[in-house]
Design a protein that fits this description.
single chain, 316 residues, mainly beta, 21-stranded mixed β-sheet, 2 helices, 21 strands, 11% helix
């Protein structure tokens, strides 16, 4: 084999190795239970159009129910409202399974447990050819005001109804979260590793939202707590404060709109000249990388904004 052919052989061999390593990396990111191409632009539209109802469950005895616990490996979840005083679960899939086992449900210790079976047993070694898509809708009555816990490894979460809860706890590895209605909870905890988060209305005595990669957008916020994004923009419209509120982004812009009727202290890691705002602050203290001031009369609550790489804008 001459030198030119040997070089070509090495280039082809290394290209094959690079492709295989990319596939392995994708599997590691999504896990063996995920279909690494399930959300691609080539298949998602087709999959959605082929979804149909394959199972429906109803739980009537819910008066003593204190917890709804949802543990999904690779399914989309929709929370909606049920006009009747029971919980209905509607399962949609793009495939009919012979054993008809799409999800498991069990009521135990005042907890309704819901878990999908969209896992490694339904897939080949690459998680590609044998996979099926699931969409699970959980219809919850207005009367339910206890706790909802959601753990979703790969899949989107959509809230299509108002919620008034004690605790809302959400953990997502890969997927978007859309809160299309009003979410009220004494304590709200959201942790999303990869995906955007959009909330129309969020109200809570204790709110903690953390995203590693993805934008966070809250159209209307009331309460106290903290929002943090490792990589992604944060946009928040603050209507009311019941305590201190902290916002932090390592890489991304921070855009705030604050109700002008509020009184608050503000502290940010930008000089006033680098803040994009038309608010008039009093009792100002600042340096090249720090600004603190007060807005309104006798402020009690404090807003803290910290951005390492990005801009901060307030009411602009």
């Amino acid at each position: 084999m001459n030198d030119k052919n040997w070089i070509k052989f090495r280039m082809i061999a290394w290209s094959i190795v690079a492709i295989l390593l990319s596939v392995i990396l994708a599997i590691c990111i999504n896990g063996w239970g995920g279909n690494i191409f399930s959300s691609s632009i080539f298949t998602r539209e087709f999959t959605i159009s082929n979804m149909k109802v394959v199972k429906e469950l109803k739980f009537d005895d819910i008066d003593d129910l204190k917890n709804i616990k949802i543990d999904f490996n690779a399914s989309d979840l929709i929370i909606s409202e049920n006009d009747e005083n029971n919980i209905i679960i509607i399962v949609k899939s793009n495939k009919n399974l012979k054993d008809k086992k799409y999800i498991n449900t069990k009521v135990s210790s005042q907890t309704l447990n819901i878990e999908d079976l969209n896992n490694r047993s339904s897939r080949n070694i690459f998680g590609i050819f044998n996979g099926y898509s699931l969409e699970v809708e959980v219809k919850v009555p207005k009367s339910y005001k206890e706790n909802i816990t959601i753990n979703n490894r790969v899949g989107d979460i959509t809230f299509n109804s108002d919620l008034n809860l004690n605790n809302l706890d959400i953990e997502v590895k890969t997927g978007d979260i859309d809160g299309n209605q009003k979410i009220n909870a004494k304590k709200t905890t959201v942790n999303n590793k990869v995906g955007n988060m959009d909330f129309n209305y969020l109200n809570g005595e204790d709110v903690s939202i953390e995203g590693k990669t993805g934008d966070i957008d809250i159209d209307e916020f009331s309460g106290k707590g903290n929002i943090e994004s490792q990589v992604g923009d944060i946009a928040c419209d603050i209507k009311n404060l019941t305590g201190d509120f902290s916002l932090k982004s390592k890489v991304g812009d921070l855009e705030l709109y604050i109700n002008r009727d509020l009184s608050f202290s503000f502290e940010g890691n930008k000089s006033f000249d680098n803040l994009d705002t038309d608010l008039k602050f009093n009792n100002v203290s600042q340096s090249s990388d720090y600004f603190a001031g007060q807005y309104g009369d006798n402020p009690v609550n404090k807003i803290t904004a910290n951005v390492k790489t990005g801009d901060i804008s307030i009411n602009n």
